[in-house]
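Margin note from the TA: students keep mixing up input and output lines. Inputs are the sequences; the output is the structure of the whole complex. Example:
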Amino acid sequence: MDSGERGRLVRILLVEDNPGDVRLTREALREGRVRNHLFSVGDGVEAMAFLRGGGKHKNAPRPDLILLDLNLPKKDGREVLAEVKANEHLRRIPVVVLTTSKSEEDIVRSYDLHANCYITKPVDLEKFIAVVKKVDDFWFEVVKLPPE
Amino acid sequence: MKIRTKLRMIGVISVFTAIGMGVILYAIRIEILDRSKKNALLDDIVIGIMDLRALTYDYLLHPEERSRQQWYMKHASLSNLFGRFDHLAAENREAANAILRNHNHLETLFSQLMENAGARSPVGKTSRDLLAGQMLTRSQAMISDAFRSIRRNRGALIAWQETYSKVFFSVAVLSVSLLAGVSFLLGRQIIRSLSKLQAGTDRIAGGDLDFRLIARERNEIGDLSRAFDRMAERLKALRDALRKNMAELESSNKDLEQFAYVASHDLQEPLRMVASYVKLLERRYKGKLDKDADEFIAFAVDGAERMQKMIDDLLTFSRVGTRGRTFGPTDAGAAMEQALENLQLFVKEKGASVTRDPLPVVLADGSQMVQLFQNLIGNAVKFHGNRPPCVHVSANKRDGEWVFSVRDNGIGIEPEYGDRIFRVFQRLHDRETYPGTGIGLAICRKIAERHGGRIWVESKAGEGSTFRFTIPTV
């Protein structure tokens, strides 16, 4: 399997509070073409700790892509998005908003906060797997990412 | 004081006044009549005296039996007049007595005259002339006295007539002004109170149920005003109770809608987990476990999928009430075309022909009108019989509303199910032949009712159905 141009496994940070969805995303990525390493955190506070390398995430690597749910405990996805995009060390990491919300307000708000793309989670499993595979494929096969 | 009492008092006073005035006027009238009669009698007496005087001359010229008899007859009739005159002449006794004395004296003189009637001697002639002269003088005195009486009597008559006119005029003026004054005062009081009542009624009719007249009048209008206030009080209590009930009903209705929405929305998430993992099981392990496992998983997947569809439909249903847009002028024809476009593939697949008459512009939620047509036309095509489906949409104006009709040539519906089909998740057929959750017509009903209309079906099994719904005209 291809692991991109980096010569290592691509690193994806999944910010998602529902373990069921975490596992589903993991399973879907496993069926994808790109070999990856999926890190997952359950709330916004932990997500920022992971990205800043603080606390128990002292040795956490810098992810190549963030999959971000909007509705999270403690600190929600919109705040995480705003903080990432306001941080000069983190802002180049592509953020893919992956949520069940279809509301126009969430979509506009996310792009205003410089989300790199917004995806509504399909309800159907087949479609969900297809979408995750496409994300994986697009960001690691099609897109040229910035150097580390 | 009660208006009725006032009116009664006015009536009684009027009657007594009228009677009193009538009596006075009648008395004056009697006096006037009496005077007139007296005058007429005095006139007759004057004429009688003159006649008697003429007969005296006649006798002097022709001293014979005929003229003598005429004189006596006249004298007797004059005596008769004096007899009647007597009781009328009380106030002028002196003149009357003088006349009467002269009258009696005339008879004496006439009998003396008769004795000298045929006298040829100069003495006799002289004595006759003397007698005639005396008689003439007496007659003249009588006429003078009578005229004096007439004059005096006429003066009294005119005075009484004047009194009569004055009294009559005064009574008339007094009555009219009194009546006018009382009517004016009473009328003003009644009209003032009525105007207040009228204004109060207008206020109440305008919805201001806090308005009270608070009347102090101790009459019928006061009673009416107090009854009015009691009515307003009762109305207000009823309205407040009604408002409270309405608010409670509205709130509970809203709660129910909200509940349906929240329940179906929040159920989606765990259900997505169930469905996803059951499908993941199927994807990974189909054919790898035993046949039973495959079958069990297949049922679980089917159940989860159906439940997802139902919850999705329930959400759509609850959104009709909770997420509806405000009404605007909507071209029903355009809405129907949009619905047809959404159904394009399905209609083509079934080989259906869908036609329509010109449809009106109505005040509605445009997207809900599309949904309404889409569900009805979709059903009309779906429930087709052996013939290729034929659907026709039309509209008629009737009693302040538009009646839309969607007619098909499909399998039709038994009349006893006419109501059931508009309820949530009610199906009449098995899922294999006619798929669907059974919410489409419930959504249609909810949309029609939200627009202030109704929906119903007219059908005969095997001969097609006509679904009709109404939208009030603008």
